[in-house]
């Protein structure tokens, strides 16, 4: 007995709709990043854009972190935060952007400030950071947004030196966008002032590309060396062409204070497992410990996972083996996966390295 015509048509329509839905889903998955990126585009030229109101660094509201009186640590840490603001209407983040500030407090601070809290008093300024969107494009507008963000970081550092430093030794730490801004800070504010440079214990520019042929200060070439620069940008081993893509998109400062493409210049590569700029591979047995501190109460010490990764510098990029622990996997939505991870592969290594360099500075 043949199937009724009405049922045949119904099944045909259902099959057609399912096929269309499947094609649409595949298309959306393929172009989802482009769709999200387009949604985050401010769609206004930076030249006609009115940035949000700026910070007043004489007030506590202008700082993510600022020490209370009575801290007995011997040094200071000036920390420039990574990107937490996705984008949308603004090229540069409002200082009171809730989601961005919450991400700093719950993800970035525990994982990236954490290694240094036992080394020095932490000063972490809020600044009108360039949006995540501006880091996904090489448009001139995006470069100008990042150059604009530098002005806040410079002003915060000058306030810290004038009002809070008191002649103490200090460490500069910058992560991702914050690392790029800190690189210029080192060149313009520290390297040009012999007194300030003499008080610099070390600078750590994490997930940051710095030109090897013209670093802002001398690179760290051995453990315990003081007054030097540790900078690296990492990719996972086996991630096809990731290192070249990273270098092709890397922007560095020129003499005029503008961002320009790194290529074809070489990049600086510090290996946190070796504590030096070096080409030899570092096996996992040297790894002191990674940590996932996301969501931990501020000041709580995370559990370390040692011997998780090996690392080696190749053509200016730090190639890292994939960690075994599932807590050291990148998670989140499209935007979160393009920010620095919610864990720190070199948490214990950086803590030990900073303490050793401070000891070297004090001995010197």
Describe the structure.
The protein is an alpha/beta fold and 364 residues long. The chain has eight helices and 13 strands. It has helices at residues 5-40, 98-113, 132-135, 140-165, 177-190, 194-199, 242-249, 347-363, and strands at residues 63-65, 75-80, 120-125, 170-175, 200-206, 228-232, 234-236, 251-253, 259-261, 270-271, 276-277, 311-314, 317-320. Helix 4 (140-165) crosses helix 5 (177-190).
Read across the widest sheet, the strand sequence of neighbours is 1-3-2-4-5-6
Number of helices, counting only DSSP H or I runs of 4 residues or more: 8
What is the mean pLDDT?
Answer: 92
Largest sheet: 6 strands, mixed
Shape field: globular
Helix percent reads 25-40%
**Intertermini distance:** 97 Å
Low-confidence stretches are 25-36
Radius of gyration: 23 Å
Structural class: alpha/beta
Note the run of SSEs as H and E. HEEHEHHEHHEEEHEEEEEEH
Number of strands: 13
What portion of residues belong to β-strands?
5-15%
What topology does this entry show?
Layout: H1 5-40, E1 63-65, E2 75-80, H2 98-113, E3 120-125, H3 132-135, H4 140-165, E4 170-175, H5 177-190, H6 194-199, E5 200-206, E6 228-232, E7 234-236, H7 242-249, E8 251-253, E9 259-261, E10 270-271, E11 276-277, E12 311-314, E13 317-320, H8 347-363
Parallel strand pairs: 2-3, 2-4, 4-5, 5-6, 7-13
Antiparallel strand pairs: 1-3, 8-9, 10-11, 12-13
Helix pairs in contact: 4-5
């Amino acid at each position: 007995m043949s199937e009724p015509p009405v049922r045949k048509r119904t099944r045909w329509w259902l099959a057609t709709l399912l096929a269309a839905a499947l094609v649409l889903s595949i298309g959306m998955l393929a172009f989802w990043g482009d769709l999200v990126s387009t949604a985050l585009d401010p769609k206004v030229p930076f030249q006609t854009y009115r940035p949000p109101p700026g910070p007043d660094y004489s007030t506590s509201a202008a700082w993510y972190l600022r020490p209370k009186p009575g801290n007995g640590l011997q040094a200071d840490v000036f920390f420039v935060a990574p990107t937490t603001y996705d984008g949308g209407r603004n090229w540069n983040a409002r200082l009171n952007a809730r989601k961005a500030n919450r991400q700093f407090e719950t993800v970035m601070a525990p994982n990236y400030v954490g290694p240094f809290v036992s080394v020095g008093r932490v000063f972490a300024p809020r600044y009108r950071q360039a949006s995540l969107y501006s880091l996904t494009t090489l448009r001139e507008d995006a470069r100008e947004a990042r150059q604009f963000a530098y002005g806040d970081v410079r002003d915060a550092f000058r306030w810290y030196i004038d009002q809070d430093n008191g002649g103490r030794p200090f460490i500069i730490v910058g992560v991702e966008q914050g690392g790029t801004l800190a690189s210029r800070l080192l060149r313009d504010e520290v390297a040009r002032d012999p007194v300030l440079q003499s008080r610099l214990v070390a600078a750590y520019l994490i997930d940051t590309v710095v030109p090897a042929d013209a670093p802002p200060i001398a690179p760290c070439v051995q453990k315990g060396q003081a007054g030097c620069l540790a900078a690296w940008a990492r990719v996972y081993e086996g991630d096809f062409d990731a290192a070249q893509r990273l270098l092709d998109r890397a922007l560095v400062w020129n003499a005029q204070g503008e961002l320009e493409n790194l290529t074809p210049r070489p990049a600086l590569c510090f290996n946190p497992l070796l504590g030096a700029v070096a080409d030899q591979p570092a096996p996992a047995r040297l790894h002191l410990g990674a940590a996932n501190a996301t969501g931990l109460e501020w000041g709580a010490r995370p559990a370390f996972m040692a011997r998780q990764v090996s690392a080696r510098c190749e053509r200016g990029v730090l190639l890292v083996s994939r960690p075994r622990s599932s807590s050291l996997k990148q998670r989140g939505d499209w935007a979160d996966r393009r920010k620095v991870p919610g864990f720190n592969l070199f948490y214990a290594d950086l803590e030990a390295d900073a303490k050793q360099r401070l000891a070297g500075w004090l001995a010197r």
